[in-house]
Amino acid sequence: MTPPERPPLPPPSPEHVEAAQRLGLTMKRLHRHISSRVMRGMQDELQGHDLSFSQVTALHQLRAYAPLTVTQLSERTRLSLPAASHLVERLVKRGLAARQENPENRREKLVDLTDAGRSVVNRMDTEFVGAYITTFTGLNLQTILAAEQHLQALLDELEPLSPHCQEQA
């Protein structure tokens, strides 16, 4: 199911583009403080489950959009159809994903996460949040609260544009 089309936005002003660029550079600086901790956690998860980066990407796409056909997953992961099909086969064999017949088109298979697949992605999320907690707990409380408030304002505008990116319970 595709979301309804939104009317095109007017082109941004030069000031708007500059502000977005500055925010992007600021976020990049923030990411540098977090990324080494996140990558260590991701590496542990990849090695612990013998997963490739493409498989982890597929797990995240499935969490956001499932159920997906193999073709849709191939498009979302930017893998060829044969590579995506092979990737799904490996995830199914490991018990991280499941396939079932598409009731609307019996020639297609739909792919979804299993509880074990959800658990892998949730553990990665926990590691990710832990990296932020470790980084931010040494900061002034007022700085943390102000940053959270401003980031929440950004998310309040951004999430209606990308509903699949919202937190899932």
Question: What do these coordinates show?
Answer:
The chain has helices at residues 14-49, 53-65, 70-77, 81-93, 115-136, 141-158; strands at 68-69, 97-102, 105-113. The protein has a three-stranded antiparallel sheet with strand order 1-3-2. It is mainly α and 169 residues long. It is globular. The mean pLDDT is 88.
Key attributes of the depicted protein:
169 residues; mainly alpha; 3-stranded antiparallel sheet; 6 helices
Helices, by number, come to 6
CA-CA gap between termini? 21 Å
Assess the beta-strand content as a share of residues: 5-15%
The share of residues in helices is 55-70%
Query: What summary fits the major beta sheet?
Result: 3 strands, antiparallel
Number of β-strand runs? 3
Low-confidence stretches: none
What is the strand arrangement across the widest sheet?
A: 1-3-2
N to C succession of SSEs: HHEHHEEHH
Query: C-alpha Rg, in Å?
Result: 19 Å
What class, by secondary structure content? mainly alpha
Mean pLDDT: 88
Shape: globular
List the helices and strands and how they pair.
Blueprint: H1 14-49, H2 53-65, E1 68-69, H3 70-77, H4 81-93, E2 97-102, E3 105-113, H5 115-136, H6 141-158
Antiparallel strand pairs: 1-3, 2-3
Helix pairs in contact: 1-5, 2-5, 3-4
Summarize the structure.
The protein is mostly helical and 169 residues long. The protein is built from 6 helices and 3 strands. It has helices at residues 14-49, 53-65, 70-77, 81-93, 115-136, 141-158; strands at 68-69, 97-102, 105-113.
